[in-house]
Predict the 3D structure of the following.
Amino acid sequence: MPLSDADLAAIWLTLKLATLTTALLLVAGTPLAWWLARTAARWKGTVSAVVALPLVLPPTVLGFYLLVAMGPAGPLGKLTQAAGLGTLPFTFAGLVLASCLYSLPFVVQPLQNAFTAIPERLLEAAATLRASPLDTFFHVVVPLARPGFLTAAVLGFAHTVGEFGVVLMIGGNIPEKTRVVSVQIYDHVEALEYSQAHWLAGGMLVFSFVVLLALYTLNPAMRRQT
Amino acid sequence: MPRFLSAVLLCLTTMAAQAGDAQIAVAANFSAPAKRIAEAFEHASGHKATLVTGATGKFHAQIVNGAPFDVLLAADDDTPAKLEREGHATGPRFTYAIGRLVLWSATPGLVDGDGAVLKRGSFRHIAVANPRLAPYGQAAMETLAALGLAERLRPRFVLGENIAQTHQFVASGNAELGFVALAQVTKDGRIGDGSGWIVPAQLHQPIRQDAVLLAHGRGNAAAKAFLEWLKGDDAKATIRSFGYDLP
């Protein structure tokens, strides 16, 4: 077995982090994406820009500000301390929060596109049939937007698996808590353990390719585009 | 226009012939003194010294893969020796500084004068540079082992990738205290902010930091001049003022 116990622990932790992050983002991102797709509010542009920020910001900026904000003197840190939770850096919960911010646009934007593509008249038709808004959402919108949900989930998951800079800044490299695969690879490379690095890095490459391949071949919406 | 361009080019090439440019890779812990030394060197010699700071392990990987550095100021003595064995460095190679470790907190009064805070254990996180990667992390682990505290404190470790990140964890207050380089917290010869315990040198192997001329800098006069300057009295005084010992 070319992978050590520490490598396996890092893989398991990464999968846990990515799964939890994706689940949270789908729950929180769906109403946000729906609002962005349907609203005519004046500050829609502002919200869209904030959602897209992690796409363009270097992870070091995000990581640095999170470290400061979640620290004992930062606003978030003061809040979590007042709630009796302590501070978030160097904890799994802190990584989940950071990952949700980091992967937010990868979940919200595909959902928003899918929702925008749904014709208004279908929703009106459902309403004339006395469907409640929630009814309409779950029985008309969700089935129609299924490719969007699939894309959002896959991209959110894969992007979180590939997260590095933010974790490096706020993680503290603690086994089974914050030492994810990308950090483990970095450690191997820095310690000149290139063969161990190869096993993990190669695995990551294959994983990412397979995920994207599955997305592009299985997802009907993507297939039409390509 | 072409004549103007060629004039500019001629100008640049003659300048380059007189005053060289050396790319210096500097270990993170030595970044502040290196900056001051490079300034004095540039002023005195007319050469230019461009500093790049980072982790010594990363520099090794980059140099092996053809990074255009002329000189390495490492955080250890293993890496320069290894580079020389592998043919990526030509020497001269010498110890330019001996690092001192300090247990430091951004909170005044938290760390006492003889490190008893470690035994009391009244903290959640203690930041240590990754001992696999950073000599200061290794020295910190040796210190804790010598004090018989390594196993007890292990669950509270947060590991920085290098000594700069470790310092950041402590400076931001996210780790209440941590082992950093004395040079990082020294102001005018004493610990500037917070509180610290300068770890007695006999608690760990000396952190010998070696400098070496790399293969890329073989014909580079500026690189050689910089290494000479590093051995001189002016540089030595700067190095000592940042809390390093000298060989």
Observations:
- The interface with chain B takes residues 67-68, 70-73, 86-87, 89-90, 168-170, 172-174, 186-187, 189-192 of chain A (CB under 8 Å).
